[in-house]
From TrEMBL:
SUPFAM superfamilies per UniProt: Multiheme cytochromes
This protein's name: Cytochrome c554 and c-prime
UniProt entry keywords in alphabetical sequence: Membrane, Transmembrane, Transmembrane helix
Segments forming domain Cytochrome c-552/4: 40-113
Gene3D superfamilies on file: Flavocytochrome C3, Chain A (1.10.1130.10)
Organism classification: Bacteria, Pseudomonadati, Thermodesulfobacteriota, Desulfovibrionia, Desulfovibrionales
Keyword Metal-binding attributed: no
Length: 159
């Protein structure tokens, strides 16, 4: 009888060990995409990147914010960065011109989301390929149209 009891205990122990061990599979490994900047999109999306580059020096640019920064309060700067920088206020997003210069403009990932996984793998399922009106309205809303006198949802040049 002792042999059977021993076998059952070993079986229970191994089952617990397996279940416990599986809970750590992938521990510390993240599958969350991070922001990489629009340059990373250029290799596969040449036409779109070319159009983006042509227009990004205008309304999407954060260069004017950089010039005005000394005259703006911190809260005002945050409002500017939320639309004129990539991923501001989000994990891995724009922090400052010095720390994250590749995210300093409103780039591809503002609309399409963080692109690191898509860039690494190329799988179109790993990025938001199609954007909708809700994505645009984050920045192109009634308040901003009135405050900055720009037309909402005008062709931005990327697509």
């Amino acid at each position: 009888m002792r042999g059977k009891s021993y076998t059952i205990r070993i079986g229970v122990f191994l089952t617990i060990l397996t279940v416990f061990g599986l809970s750590f599979v992938g521990y510390g490994v993240t599958n969350s995409a991070t922001y990489v900047g629009s340059e990373a999109c250029a290799e596969c999306h040449e036409k779109e990147f070319s159009n983006y580059s042509k227009y990004s020096k205008k309304a999407h640019s954060s260069a004017s914010i950089k010039i005005m920064a000394s005259d703006l309060a911190q809260d005002e700067l945050k409002d500017c960065y939320s639309c004129h920088a990539t991923g501001y206020g989000k994990p891995g997003g724009f922090v400052s011109f010095e720390k994250t210069p590749q995210l300093a403009d409103a780039g591809c990932e503002v609309c399409h989301g963080p692109g690191s996984l898509h860039v690494e793998d190329g799988d179109p399922e790993l990025i938001k390929a199609k954007v909708d009106i809700k994505d645009c309205e984050t920045c192109h809303n009634a308040d901003r149209v009135e405050n900055f006198n720009f037309k909402p949802l005008i062709y931005g040049g990327a697509h």
